[in-house]
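Dear support,

Our group has been running a series of protein-ligand predictions, and this particular one with 2-phosphoglycolic acid is the one our PI (initials K.S.) wants archived with full inputs and outputs. We had some confusion internally about which version of the output was final, so please treat the block below as the authoritative record. The input we submitted was:
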Amino acid sequence: MSGSTITPWVVGNWKMNPMQANAQQWVEDFTQLLKEQVIDSQSCRIGVAPTTLALLNIKDQLKNSSVDVMTVAQDVSRMAGTGAYTGDISAELLKDSGIDYVLIGHSERREIFGDHPQILNAKIKNALSAGLTVIYCVGESLEQREAGQAEAVVLQQICDIAAVVETEQWKNIVIAYEPIWAIGTGKTASPADAQNMHAKIREGLIQITSEGKNTAILYGGSVKPENAVELAACPDINGALVGGASLDAKSFYQIAHAFAQSK
Ligand code: PGA
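Confirmed final output from the archive:
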């Protein structure tokens, strides 16, 4: 038991994977697992973030699921509304297609695609104004951790968005703490280290917003069925953002199950 009153979120981040046929098979397998053993949405909110190409197909296919599964966009344009912005998709367009959730600030977007705080703030502002719920990702690099800067870096990333999130919009923010050195590496922060950082994030959020005590703070970075139970038992770890292991329907189901049991 984690002792937390926050309903956990377990979200699969598929990144630039998989091919359509595999994505469809995944939904069949995952919904079958949910049918065999229900995970009710009061005990865990489950979401999946496919590629933009697959987003609507997956959303449609998930309509048949016995349990509500959220479809989450992996990113959003920094430009709002509609217009001459070749290649981008705005928050309004996502919302118009029935997508209610979006990841913003994933370290791969920050590092590979140059999403710096100003860009991220524009994305967050637009997403919240369009009525999307934002899963905002934060996390330090190995060099920053080794230099003893992990906490300062992560808290700064949280403070960065405070300028654009209006008081009543904090309830539409979920935080995902993903230490960069743990993403896709097989290295997980120990539950104690992760809990430590989550507690600091919680303190920071409480200082910024009265919603801070209710904000779900997810952990991400090599979460798998083998470590999910221990992570889920930590009071300030309110779910997981799962990359690699989410591509396997059974592993992802087991992780969601572990968090559902932790409540
Ligand atoms: P991972 O990825 O689970 O493969 O480490 C997590 C993420 O990048 O969201």
